[in-house]
Every structure is written in structure tokens, then in C-alpha cells.
């Protein structure tokens, strides 16, 4: 008994000791990587700093100080939006991290979000009243509100605490600039430089003033002086080179970057800068030729290898990029760089439609590191594509636990909730995206759309107006506001928006086109024609204004004026196929078939592979009761347009009307053979097989064809999948699919017929009667109409 207790006791000590050793090992590794990252950051080697801090993150994703350091690296690299995400994450998780609040406030102030900046800096000062950067930030906020006296008082307080504080001196100079006292600002900076000749920030600000005044030699002198003060800091080579590029001194810029590589031989950032320059200003091949010898000398430098991957992708050498990434995987196995390489390789596989290979790599990464954010995000996207919504939501939420401000994942999560009919959760996540990235135009518009969908019109309008406050020149913002007023039938306000666009972009056709649309929907057709003409004056070859102008003429029953306008257009622009096509439509509407035929034929002479005129010529032929010629036009159109699906369906209807089902099948088989990856080709063939060849073998083939469509969000495609399941007797599956279809499109009469028949087979007579009645009440004759009517009469 004693022996057993001793053994268990010793085993317990061993286990405890083992866990402590593992814990200590992780903490030691974390401390080592953190120290390395800070050293690299201080030396200006930002890529190595980023890699070191990422290693810390893999060990401890909730080390918020480490996230702050990642933000510092990103900020130094000029990746302000990404830095903002990291700083914001820290403020959300660690309320006592003063500098994170200051950094977020600084970025907010740069984006003119003074209110939020002040809120953050006030909180920071409450925790640390003498924090110099916070005092200077508060001064900046006051200056932004034109409270120059208050701003100066704060600067003076900072200088009282530390008389040579650079940020306070620079803020003082900045306030002078705001007061248009440029000479005073220059004097302040020159005086400060005389006292602090090694202070790089002072030179930088003075150089910026010179650059804004186009005193380029003086500005370059400042940047050169900075480099002489600290020739070991890579960013100063970058600043000088960028200035030389901006002043079109490319050879000097290249020389500066080569100096950086020569003087900092172990600095990957210096090498990356030179390679980026060569890629952009010379060519990817020149950059690769420079890079390969570097890799030969430093075979274990993964930063250079990933740079090679980027260059190979830039020149669209996907096989080369794959080879390089596979070499990294082989070399680093499941180390941090091997994981990164697998993620990049999986992304390439996704883009090249090798989903199975991408999933395998994704699994390898998550097996090695179940919390890898890139891999979780990718798996979530796989789940989303497969309509496995709960799993996708779970993965996206897992990423957000460690990265709550990751706006890309927040948007994916919003999309997943929307697919799951959880609109309030979708809005909640998009609200977070907008909160983190207030300048993101598409995010605000997406949130406005979600508000409109929920009937929250005031909130939708507010988002659009906020977008225009942040970006007063946002054309998409004005278009959204214009559409909002049209939907509310506020015609005058819509015209007011169109007028603003005209003033914003006086040489552009957009504002006048918007005005024309506004008049058109308000039934002021004469005014709409005048506005569309103004749009065409700005852009004579514009398609939309011409198309809408002709619509207005026709609505006014003025075909002669429409034709006169079109004749004028083709006289000035002999190759304007849109004008000829519209002309054909006007003639066809007036039953002038020979003239219509001539106009459509002319359009095809200009663009033989445009499907529209073939359809129109078929309509002309049918109007002349020449069905054979109509079918010939469609057949010719299919040949010339590489099997346009609209033409295929039109011709199939002709064959079907004559009971030539063998020709219908041959046509759909031909279309599928030519476009096996097209969901339309698949849908057409599978629908035909299920409706007109419902043998067990044909149905089995149809079911196999539509397997990829089961994850579609397209109601029409899902209807086909459900109907095939019905034909095979799988009524429960068919019912579930058709219920989804009708939830998305409740007025789809064919789907009502399909669901009615499914309920009939399930012996749910009440539901069968309800849906079949809706199908019959549509009074639209469709395939199956007779069956719907007959079944309804039976029950």
C-alpha cells in the first residue's frame, strides 16, 4: 500500500514537473521572441520584427502588449489600417493600456474623427495625466476644433514637464502652420534642430514643409541629413528613396536603396524595398534576378523566399510560386514558416479551383495549430461555400476571439448570419466593421442596405450621410442617397443629390444621368430627355443615358424623335452598335420589320458575337410568321456566341413547342459538353432529364449532375435539385429544398406547383391544395400547369 502510494506520489511529482518545464519553456520562448521583436523594431527591420511578434502570438494569442507591438510594427511599415486593428484590439481587451489608447486616438485624429480621438485621449490622461504623447494628442484635438489657445496651453504644459519634448515642439509648429504662420513654424523647427541636431523627427517635419512648398532640393537635404544621422535605420533610406521616386529621380532612388542593402546586409526590409522598387519600376523579372543570389547566400531566410513567391505571383508564374512554397514546407516542416507557406499554398489552390488539395493543407495547419487564424478563416469560407452555416459561424467566431477587430472576418461572419436568416446578427457585425473602419465606403453601404432590408430607413439614411461626411466626394455614397430618395418618392431631394454630383464632377456624365433617371421615375419625361442629352454631351458614347432617353421617347409615343436621335448618333459614331440595336427595337415596335432587320444586322456587322441582335432578329422573323428563319437566327447566334445560354433556351423552346424533345436534349447536351462548369448548362440539362426523360437512369444522372448545386443560394437552381429529388421519390429532401426556395421567392409559381405536388405525395392534402392553388392562380402557362390543375381538381 505504501509502495503504491509512493509510486503515485512520485508520478504526480513527475507530471507536475513536466508541466512546469513545458510552461517555463513556452514562457522562455515567448520572452525570447518578444525581445527579438523589440530589437528588430528598434533597428528598423520590420519584417523580422513582425515574424518574431507573430511567434509570440502563436504561443500566447492573448498577450495584449504583444498585439500593441505588432501595431507598432505595422504603423512603421505604413500599414495604418492594420495597425489600427491591433491597437483597437488592445484597447478593447486591456483598458489600462494607455499607449494603445493614444495610438488609436492619433489615428482617429488623422481621420478627422475628433470626437472619438478626444474620448480616448481623455481616458488616457485620466489614467496618466502627465503622459506627454497624450497631452500632445489632446492639443491636436483642440487645434482641430480651432481652439488654438487651448492647444497651445497643453503644448506649453508638456514642455514644462519636458522642455525638449520633440512631439510638443512639433505640435507647436503645427499650430503655427494652422494659423498660417509658416515662417514662424520653420523658425521654431530650425531653432529646435540647432539645439537637438540629432533629432530626426524635427528634420522630417521641416522637410515636409519644404516639400509642400515645392522646395524640393531643401526637402531632399533634410532627408539626406536624417540618413547621415542614422545610417543604420532602414526606414530613412525608404523615405529618401520614396521622395526621389515622387520627384521622378528613379536612378537616384535605386542608388539609395542599393546603399541600404549594402550598408545593412542582414536587413530583410532593405532587401525587400529594393526588390519592390525593381518590381514596380523595372519589372518582376529584374527583381527576381536580384533576389535569387540573395536566397543562395541565405538559404534559411524565409522572408526572402516569401518575397520570391510574391514576385512569382506578380508575373503570374503560379507553378513557380507553388514550387517555392513547397520548398518552404519541406524545409520548415510544421514550423511557423511552414505553416505560413501551407496557408499561402492553400490560397493558391483555392484560386485555381483545387479545392480538395486546399482542404488537405488547411487540415494539416489546423491539426498542427487549431487556433491558426488564417486557416480557421479559410475553413470557415469552405463551410460557407458548402452551405454549412453553423460550422462557418463557429470558425469565424473562433478567429474573432483572438482578433475581435478583424474586419474581414467580421464581414464574413455577417454574411454567414445573413445566409442563416439572422439579419440582426448580420447588422450587429457590420456595425462593428463600420465602427473599426469608419472610412470604409463599401462597409457603410452594406450596413445601409441591411438597415433598409429591415425597414430601418432612418438608420440606412444616416449611414449614407455619415459616409458622405467622412468622404464628401464619394460617388457611391451620392448614388446610394439618390436611390434612397427615389425609393421614398422624394423627387426634389433626389434631384438635389444629382445636382451635387454635377457640381462635384462637372465634366462627368453621372450627375446628369442621375437627374434624368429622377425625372423619368417622377414621370417628367420631357425633362428626363433633356437631362439625358446633357449626359451625352459630357460623354457622347455613354450607353445608359442613350438607352434611357429612347425609353422616354417611346413612353411619350414619340418614335420619330427617338429614330431621329439614333440616326444622329450613328452618323457621328458609325460603329455605335448600341444605337443600331436601339434603332432596331424602335422599328420593331412600329412593326417596320425590314427596317428593324437592317438595323439589327448592322449591329451584328459591328459585333458578330453579341447575342442580343440574334434574339431580336428571331423576334422579327416570328413577327413575320417565319418560324424557320427565327430558328436559323438562334442557331447562328449560338454558333457565333460560343453557345450563349439565352439563345440556347430560346431555341429549345421552339423545339419543345413542336414536340421535338430529341432536339431539345441534343441542344442541352451540346451546351453542357461545351461548358461543363457552367451551372446554367448543368441546370438546363438536368431539368430536361427530370421533366422529359424521367427514367431511373436519367434521373440518377440528373441527380449526379446537380450535386454541386445543392449548396447554391440561387432559388432557381435549388428548385431543380428539389424537383429531381421529388422525381426520385425522395419527398422529404424535396420538401426541405422547396421550402427554402419559396422562402426566398414566395411568388415563384413553378416552385409553388412543385411544392404542391410534393405535399400531395406526402398526403398532406391541405398544404398541397394551398400551393397548387397559388400556382394555378398565376394564370401563367408553364410546364406542369395541366398537372397542377388536374391534381387540384382531384383534391
CATH architecture of the domain at 473-557, please?
Alpha Horseshoe
- The low-pLDDT segments are 1-23
How many alpha or pi helices? 45
- Total strands: 0
CATH topology description of the domain at 473-557: Serine Threonine Protein Phosphatase 5, Tetratricopeptide repeat
Q: Distance between the terminal alpha carbons, to the nearest Å? A: 81 Å
Strand content: under 5%
What structural category arises from helix and sheet content? Answer: mainly alpha
CATH class of the domain at 473-557 reads Mainly Alpha
Largest sheet: none
Rg estimate, integer Å: 34 Å
Name the average pLDDT: 93
Described by the principal axes of the CA atoms, the overall outline is globular
Helix content: over 70%
CATH-defined superfamily of the domain at 473-557: Tetratricopeptide repeat domain
Topology readout:
Layout: H1 2-43, H2 46-59, H3 64-76, H4 80-93, H5 98-110, H6 114-127, H7 132-144, H8 148-161, H9 166-178, H10 182-195, H11 200-212, H12 216-229, H13 234-246, H14 250-263, H15 268-282, H16 284-297, H17 302-314, H18 318-332, H19 336-351, H20 355-368, H21 373-385, H22 389-402, H23 407-419, H24 423-436, H25 441-453, H26 457-470, H27 475-487, H28 491-504, H29 510-521, H30 525-538, H31 543-555, H32 559-572, H33 577-589, H34 593-606, H35 611-623, H36 627-640, H37 645-657, H38 661-674, H39 679-692, H40 696-705, H41 715-727, H42 731-744, H43 749-761, H44 765-777, H45 785-794
Amino acid at each position: 500500500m505504501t509502495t503504491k502510494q509512493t509510486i503515485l506520489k512520485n508520478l504526480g511529482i513527475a507530471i507536475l514537473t513536466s508541466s512546469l518545464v513545458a510552461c517555463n519553456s513556452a514562457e522562455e520562448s515567448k520572452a525570447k521572441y518578444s525581445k527579438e521583436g523589440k530589437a528588430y523594431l528598434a533597428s528598423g527591420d520590420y519584417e523580422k520584427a513582425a515574424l518574431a511578434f507573430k511567434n509570440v502570438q502563436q504561443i500566447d494569442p492573448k498577450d495584449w502588449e504583444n498585439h500593441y507591438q505588432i501595431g507598432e510594427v505595422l504603423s512603421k511599415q505604413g500599414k495604418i489600417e492594420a495597425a489600427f486593428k491591433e491597437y483597437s484590439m488592445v484597447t478593447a481587451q486591456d483598458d489600462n493600456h494607455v499607449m494603445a489608447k493614444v495610438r488609436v486616438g492619433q489615428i482617429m485624429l488623422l481621420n478627422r474623427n475628433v470626437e472619438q480621438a478626444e474620448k480616448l485621449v481623455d481616458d488616457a490622461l485620466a489614467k496618466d495625466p502627465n503622459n506627454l504623447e497624450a497631452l500632445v494628442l489632446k492639443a491636436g484635438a483642440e487645434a482641430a476644433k480651432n481652439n488654438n489657445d487651448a492647444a497651445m496651453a497643453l503644448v506649453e504644459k508638456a514642455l514644462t514637464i519636458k522642455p525638449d519634448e520633440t512631439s510638443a515642439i512639433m505640435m507647436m509648429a503645427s499650430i503655427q502652420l494652422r494659423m498660417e504662420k509658416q515662417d514662424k513654424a520653420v523658425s521654431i523647427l530650425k531653432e529646435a534642430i540647432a539645439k537637438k541636431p540629432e533629432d530626426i523627427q524635427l528634420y522630417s517635419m521641416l522637410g515636409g514643409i519644404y516639400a509642400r512648398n515645392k522646395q524640393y532640393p531643401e526637402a531632399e537635404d533634410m532627408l539626406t541629413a536624417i540618413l547621415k544621422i542614422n545610417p543604420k535605420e532602414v526606414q530613412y533610406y525608404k523615405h529618401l528613396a520614396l521622395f526621389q521616386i515622387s520627384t521622378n529621380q528613379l536612378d537616384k532612388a535605386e542608388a539609395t536603396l542599393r546603399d541600404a542593402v549594402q550598408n545593412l546586409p542582414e536587413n530583410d526590409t532593405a532587401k525587400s524595398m529594393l526588390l519592390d522598387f525593381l518590381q514596380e519600376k523595372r519589372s518582376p523579372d529584374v527583381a527576381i534576378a536580384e533576389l535569387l543570389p540573395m536566397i543562395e547566400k541565405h538559404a534559411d531566410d524565409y522572408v526572402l523566399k516569401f518575397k520570391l513567391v510574391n514576385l512569382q505571383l506578380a508575373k503570374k508564374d503560379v507553378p513557380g510560386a507553388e514550387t517555392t512554397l513547397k520548398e518552404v514546407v519541406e524545409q520548415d516542416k510544421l514550423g511557423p514558416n511552414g505553416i505560413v507557406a501551407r496557408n499561402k499554398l492553400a490560397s493558391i489552390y483555392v484560386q485555381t479551383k483545387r479545392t480538395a488539395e486546399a482542404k488537405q493543407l488547411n487540415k494539416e495547419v489546423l491539426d498542427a495549430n487549431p487556433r491558426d487564424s488564417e486557416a480557421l478563416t479559410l475553413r470557415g469560407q469552405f463551410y460557407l461555400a458548402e452551405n454549412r452555416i453553423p460550422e462557418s459561424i463557429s470558425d469565424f467566431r473562433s478567429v474573432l476571439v483572438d482578433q475581435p477587430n478583424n474586419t474581414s472576418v467580421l464581414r464574413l461572419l455577417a454574411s454567414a448570419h445573413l445566409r442563416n436568416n439572422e439579419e440582426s446578427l448580420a447588422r450587429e457585425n457590420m456595425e462593428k466593421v463600420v465602427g473599426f473602419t469608419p472610412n470604409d465606403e463599401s462597409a457603410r453601404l452594406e450596413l445601409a442596405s441591411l438597415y433598409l432590408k429591415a425597414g430601418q430607413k432612418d438608420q440606412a439614411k444616416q449611414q449614407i450621410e455619415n459616409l458622405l461626411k467622412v468622404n464628401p466626394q464619394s460617388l457611391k455614397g451620392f448614388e446610394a442617397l439618390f436611390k434612397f430618395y427615389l425609393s421614398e418618392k422624394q423627387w426634389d431631394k433626389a434631384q438635389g443629390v444629382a445636382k451635387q454630383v454635377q457640381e462635384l464632377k462637372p465634366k462627368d456624365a453621372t450627375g446628369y444621368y442621375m437627374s434624368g433617371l429622377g425625372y423619368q421615375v417622377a414621370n417628367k419625361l420631357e425633362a428626363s430627355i433633356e437631362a439625358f442629352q446633357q449626359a451625352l454631351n459630357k460623354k457622347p458614347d455613354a450607353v445608359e443615358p442613350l438607352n434611357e432617353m429612347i425609353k422616354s421617347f417611346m413612353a411619350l409615343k414619340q418614335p420619330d424623335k427617338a429614330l431621329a436621335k439614333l440616326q444622329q448618333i450613328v452618323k457621328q459614331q458609325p460603329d455605335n452598335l448600341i444605337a443600331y440595336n436601339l434603332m432596331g427595337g424602335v422599328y420593331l415596335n412600329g412593326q417596320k420589320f425590314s427596317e428593324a432587320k437592317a438595323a439589327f444586322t448592322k449591329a451584328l456587322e459591328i459585333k458578330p458575337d453579341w447575342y442580343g441582335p440574334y434574339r431580336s432578329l428571331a423576334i422579327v422573323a416570328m413577327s413575320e410568321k417565319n418560324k424557320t428563319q427565327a430558328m436559323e437566327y438562334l442557331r447562328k447566334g449560338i454558333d457565333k456566341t460560343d453557345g450563349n445560354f439565352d439563345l440556347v433556351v430560346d431555341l429549345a423552346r421552339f423545339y419543345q413547342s413542336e414536340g421535338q424533345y430529341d432536339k431539345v436534349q441534343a441542344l442541352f447536351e451540346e451546351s453542357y459538353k461545351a461548358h461543363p462548369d457552367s451551372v446554367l448548362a448543368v441546370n438546363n440539362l438536368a431539368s430536361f432529364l427530370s421533366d422529359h426523360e424521367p427514367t431511373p437512369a436519367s434521373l440518377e444522372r440528373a441527380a449526379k449532375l446537380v450535386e454541386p448545386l445543392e449548396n447554391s443560394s440561387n432559388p432557381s437552381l435549388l428548385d431543380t435539385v428539389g424537383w429531381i429529388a421529388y422525381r426520385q421519390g425522395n419527398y422529404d429532401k424535396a420538401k426541405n429544398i422547396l421550402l427554402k426556395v419559396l422562402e426566398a421567392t414566395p411568388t415563384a409559381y413553378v416552385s409553388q406547383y412543385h411544392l404542391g405536388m410534393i405535399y400531395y405525395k406526402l398526403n398532406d392534402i391541405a398544404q398541397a391544395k394551398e400551393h397548387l392553388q397559388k400556382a394555378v392562380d398565376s394564370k401563367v402557362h408553364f410546364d406542369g400547369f395541366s398537372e397542377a390543375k388536374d391534381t387540384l381538381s382531384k383534391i
